[in-house]
Amino acid sequence: MVQTPAKFTIQNVLIPTDHVYAFVDVQIVDGKIAAIAPHLNVIGTAIDGRNKLLLPGFVNAHTHSSEMWQRGIMSVLPLELWLAELYDFAPLDVEKVYLSALGTAVETLLSGGTSVVDHLVLIPGQELETIATAVRAYREVGIRAFVAPLIQDESITAGIPSGESAQTHEPYFRSTAATLEIIEEAVRQFHRPDEGMNILVAPTGIQLCTDALFAGCIELSDRYNLCRHSHLLETKAQEKLAQEKYGCTAVAHLKRIGYLGDRTSLAHCVWLTDTDINILAETQSTVVHNPLSNLRLGSGIAPILKYRQAGVNVTFGCDGASSNDSQDLLEAIKIGSILHNVTDLDYQHWITPKQAVEMASLGGVKGLNLAEELGSLTVGKKADLVLYDLTNLSLLPRTDPIGLLVLGRPSHVVNSAWVNGKQIITDGKVITINVDQLRQELFNLSQWETKRKSQTVAQLELHYRQVMGL
Ligand SMILES: [Zn+2]
Predict the structure, then answer these.
(1) Ligand 1 centre from 207 Cα, in Å?
(2) How far is the CA of 294 from the centre of ligand 1 (A)?
(3) Which residue in 106, 96, 139, 134 sits closest to 435, CA to CA?
(4) What's the pLDDT tens digit per position in 327-378?
(5) How far apart are CA 15 and CA 109, in angstroms?
(6) FRET pair for 414, CA 20 to 30 Å: which of 172, 197, 280, 460?
(7) What superfamily does domain 58-366 belong to in CATH?
(8) 30: CA distance to ligand 1 center in Å?
């Protein structure tokens, strides 16, 4: 393990200011930003910031790390059928969970992220081991982690609207109470915010969760001061399902049961009404926009410009690598901002590169209730920082650095990254783990594959097509 100086000073580095950019020195002491100004004394180790851009680290605000094992091979299907295929071919073991968590962390870090929200799929019967394994991987890499164990208490077929037909569903294999006990035990064992390791309550969404599960999560969140996470209205099918299940929109229902709030982040939010949008604004909930996943699964285009105009906090996620099929945060930020230009003729509403950077950093930590501590280059905040190499071919010739970073196709541009002042990337390489060994293990535990046939998709497809009018 490389020893990182408790104190260091980044010299002559470019940072964005309110209107333009400035060359400054940045002193870091005990994991925090101690001073930002030109020509500071060097405290601790000097780091050459010349021809580099310093930004606060981004948040990969929604992903599912173990989906890495199926990226590239998933059929071209909408979410409900795609999920059936995903689970048919997900014979995970803890070793795979470990490696894909490492891989997710590394790809996030190398694309500007310093925090990751992992809506972690649990291995049935080994739930706590799954959580422990992801926690171990993230601690080894040193990324700030928000492990959100993905829980549900209804079986997968319940996630498809019934339509005209009466549908019955198998009961879920584990009781609601047992599921909540697992989460509480995970909180006791692993929730250590001061060490950069956080557990979230994270029912997968209204489509597969009862009110009892949501209520149990709210109770745990209040008791242990945990952030709340969930998928929300990712697909048209979920919009229909909410009406069948509650007789109102999913957002109105979540408000009624008290799940929304300033520490609640909601992935997708594609199919919301204008009233729903106002509810998210009122409750100060955060929307996590996952544009690549929404395009890949044909879920729709989330009305992000409307959210921003209504005052809803929006940030970006990669979503799991099976619906993306990468963990490149810069790619998600680019597509997630320019995609919306086609939804509104008024270009004054469009997202600028600088706004996109703020959404990815400050917007991300707001949704995790950490805006006081992280998310901007501010004296007193924790040093979760990323240094970009402005001499990289993909960032040349020299124009607007943030414009190049967001609108270009930056590759291998992260020179250094720190989490809590601890250096994780040096000279473009993650130094906390052996990435070559990780590559070798990912290679060894997988095979070139092309076609597979999902039994569950075959069973569900006819009903899905009927109910969706296809
Ligand atoms: Zn997701």
Answers:
(1) 13
(2) 10
(3) 106
(4) 999 999 999 999 999 999 999 999 999 999 999 999 999 999 999 999 999 9
(5) 19
(6) 197
(7) Metal-dependent hydrolases (3.20.20.140)
(8) 35
